[in-house]
Design a protein that fits this description.
With about 170 residues, the chain is mainly α. The chain has helices at about 1-50, 65-80, 85-90, 95-105, 130-150, 155-165; strands spanning about 80, 110-115, 120-125. The protein has two domains: about 1-50; about 60-173, Orthogonal Bundle (Arc Repressor Mutant, subunit A). The chain has a three-stranded antiparallel beta sheet. Strand 2 (about 110-115) and strand 3 form a beta hairpin.
Length: about 170
């Protein structure tokens, strides 16, 4: 009789530990979820601060799509790209890249060039207007980044950049 009472109390104790373990797991997930939410919110704020304000003289011009902005960023890193290279960088079919460049040409942000030794190869580069806007965007982003990083001392900046690099091993364009 005592043995069965002892075993019942042992099972109840185990059940209690199991419930406590489940509650602790839920609490950890909730804490983790809060951290994920906080991370997303902070990254959104950083992205918003790095997004330059449109120049007043450009307000009447159409905005660029996300894909167009990625293409302009790729051009900013390389200055001239073949259509095939651009499509590969953006991870889109050549036809999508071509259609998107058509739009950027109409916006007078890029221009197409044919390679003299092989006219089949089409290269894309910034137009004069595109270069000016790209320079403006870079200057605005650098100023915003300098302002945000100024809150950290040089040692903290190094650690911060090291941690971000660990989280983002490959930089997307």
């Amino acid at each position: 009789m005592q043995l069965s009472e002892h075993s019942t109390s042992f099972q109840a104790g185990c059940q209690g530990w199991r419930i406590l373990h489940e509650l602790a797991t839920i609490e950890k997930e909730t804490r983790s979820d809060k951290q994920v939410r906080q991370f997303i919110d902070l990254m959104d704020m950083v992205a918003e601060r790095l997004r330059p304000v449109r120049r007043p003289r450009d307000l009447d011009h159409p905005e660029c799509s996300q894909l167009e902005l990625r293409a302009l960023a790729a051009l900013g890193q390389r200055s001239i790209l073949s259509m095939s290279e651009l499509a590969a960088i953006l991870k889109v079919p050549l036809s999508t890249a071509t259609h998107m460049i058509d739009k950027l040409v109409l916006k007078n942000l890029v221009e197409r060039r044919h390679v003299q030794h092989d006219r089949r190869i089409v290269q894309v580069a910034f137009s004069k207007k595109g270069k000016r806007i790209h320079r403006f965007v870079l200057e605005s982003r650098f100023a915003a980044a300098r302002g945000m990083l100024a809150a950290l001392n040089p040692g903290e900046r190094g650690i911060f950049l090291q941690r971000i690099s660990k989280m983002v091993p490959e930089s997307p364009v």
